[in-house]
Amino acid sequence: MDVTHADRGRAAPHLREIVLFLSVHLDRAPGVLWPEYDNPAFGDAEDADTLPAEGGVRPAQVDRFTAELAALTGLSVRLDRVETPGSALAGGTDAVWTAQPGGREHLLVHQIAGAATWQLAGTGESGRPESFQCRLLPGELLYVPPGWSRRYIDAQGAQYAVVCLGPQGG
Asked: What CA–CA distance (Å, rounded) separates 143 from 19?
């Protein structure tokens, strides 16, 4: 990820926070970002009455966010899904995603509403199996490295968005 200081300086504060966060965690280890600045693409519990029907996201703002984050990081960035655990779409109250062998996509989980406990498992920087658990509140982000399996538990009433980051053209 090659970001110049001038590029970061022109970016919106929420993007600067995410780029700095990714510069520390990308390809290394899971992490949680407790941002100082709201991301206008994703609503939170405080502005739930102004959110569109699309499930806690503002489509035009999401497009802008993914394009700007891609420009700043040099990665391909896309919104994968928005889910509400416990809904028929999410498949119940718990979900487990098993990493694809050789998977190259990084994930940013943006908690939109409610709270959810996330459990991750993968191979750490030491080459040994590791696990990670955290509880996300609205507005917080979880970075999941490629190849890590992830599961949410205790997420009733929660909503989150999954943003995928990967190699350009991949």
From this structure: 12
